[in-house]
Write a structure and sequence with these properties.
Layout (H helix, E strand, L loop, with lengths): L4 H17 L18 E5 L2 E4 H11 L9 H28 L5 H14 L4 H10 L4 H22 L7 H10 L5 E2 L2 E9 L13 H15 L6 H8 L10 E6 H7 L4 H5 L8 E7 L2 E11 L3 E2 L7 H28 L2 E3 H8 L27 E2 L52
Parallel strand pairs: 6-10
Antiparallel strand pairs: 1-2, 1-9, 3-8, 4-5, 4-7, 6-7
Length: about 425
């Protein structure tokens, strides 16, 4: 069982993505596929979870594309989402018993904070909230649950002590590959997607994408322009929440993900801080900023900046994650859970079709926009060359977590296209 999958499916995902990413389209769930939204999908210690909650979470997870799923795929998605909602309900009930449910004042304070961070007008915020299937009351209730579970996990894991020097040194010696800083670059990007994916995208065709690209490039040339701020405002990619940061790419990773750009980024003549023209990759347009370049491979030591603090954080976070996972496992075992949706599948195994609906064709090209000043075109090859299927090529994952999965958070997942640097958590 994935630890706190409810975090991604329900609390953080529904609030952070719906409110901050503005990534969900359409209106409140009315029960797709003939599902009654008022039907009870499951119960936890007698508390009902309605199909309305399941459908809303499926819609969020599918990013508005749930209509393209076959009956078999939709049933699987519902069961997966429901399991997350069950876990969330179990932990929320534990939070109630442990006294970690926030006050109305705390909820309002956090609500206002996130609304400010969204940088949306009140009208736009309300529109996005409605599109996500929430009203003010239900959204505050969801936020209260998220904060309650977060405070519960903090309370449970507060007993974890920081590792001692011997443990830090043992980890350092046992993981030498983690402390080699390879030649490579750190990149940021503003992404324009001409396809109307039903995800609240602003640009929905090539003409709109071209116009938006020119607008962004023009703003980037203005004195004092802030790439990160413009990424948060204009980018149509989850990386917008990190100011467009895609992470650190070793030279080999760079060649794998951006073969037509790797040589340009590694060329010392392309100075740190410079920005590219719009570069078409896999049907989307990318404006890159070179944030950092490491010319020579470097082996870090325990005395290198940030190495000890990051090892301390890695070990502490992993211990907290294990403790929280164990606590949740016990809570799930103690809870009286009835999964009526799963029972319906078992009772009617032959009613599910595996046929997938025909996909809707999307635009495959993004026109490049020319500009002057610091904006530079690095691409010398065919602009339609995909980035080595970057999205489907996972990067090696370091055996640590910078943020414990056990801690419910509104942090947005790292961008999935192109593949991000899993070694971003490495001490650098």
């Amino acid at each position: 069982m994935q630890l706190f999958s409810a975090r991604a499916v329900a609390a953080a995902f529904l609030f952070a993505v719906a409110m901050l990413a503005a990534a969900c389209g359409g209106g409140p769930s009315t029960g797709s596929g003939g599902v009654d939204p008022n039907e009870t999908a499951a119960s936890v210690n007698g508390k009902a979870i309605k199909m309305e909650d399941v459908e809303r979470a499926v819609k969020q997870q599918a990013q508005g594309q749930e209509a393209k799923l076959s009956a078999l795929e939709l049933a699987s998605a519902r069961l997966q989402v429901l399991q997350g909602l069950i876990e969330q309900e179990v932990m929320f009930q534990k939070a109630e018993k442990e006294g970690t449910v926030p006050t109305d004042e705390e909820v309002s304070s956090e609500f206002n904070k996130r609304m400010q961070q969204s940088q949306l007008s009140k009208d736009e915020f309300d529109r996005q909230m409605k599109n996500a299937g929430f009203d003010d009351k239900s959204l505050r209730e969801q936020l209260k649950r998220e904060l309650a579970i977060q405070k519960l996990v903090d309370k449970i894991t507060s007993r974890i002590e920081a590792p001692n020097d011997a443990e830090i040194e043992q980890f350092f010696k046992g993981n030498p590959e983690m402390f080699v800083r390879k030649r490579g670059v750190r990149l940021a990007a503003i992404v324009v997607d001409p396809a109307d994916g039903g995800e609240g995208d602003v640009t929905k065709n090539d003409a709109e994408a071209s116009q938006r690209a020119k607008e962004i490039l023009g703003k980037l040339q203005m004195p004092g322009s802030d790439f990160a701020a413009l990424a948060r405002e204009y980018s149509e990619d989850p990386s917008k929440f990190q100011g467009g940061d895609l992470g650190y790419f070793g030279e080999d990773e760079l060649k794998q993900n951006f073969p037509q750009l790797a040589a340009g980024f590694m060329n010392p003549e392309f100075t740190v801080g410079r920005i590219t023209n719009m570069v078409p990759i896999n049907g989307k347009g990318y404006i890159f900023k070179l944030q950092e370049r490491v010319e020579k491979e470097e082996t870090l030591t325990l005395d290198s900046p940030n190495v000890r603090p990051q090892i301390t954080k890695m070990l502490t976070d992993n211990r907290k994650q294990l403790l929280a996972a164990s606590y949740q496992a016990i809570a799930m075992n103690e809870a009286r859970v009835e999964n009526f949706l799963a029972k319906k599948v078992v009772d009617n195994p032959n009613e599910l079709s595996g046929a997938r609906k025909a996909p809707v064709a999307n635009a495959n090209t993004t026109p490049a926009a020319n500009s002057n000043g610091t904006v530079t075109d690095l691409s010398n090859s065919n602009s339609n060359t995909p980035a080595a299927n970057a999205a489907s090529t996972p990067k090696p994952t370091a055996p640590t977590a910078a943020t414990p999965a056990a801690r419910p958070s509104t942090a947005t997942p790292r961008p999935s296209t192109p593949a991000t640097a899993a070694n971003a958590n490495r001490p650098q």
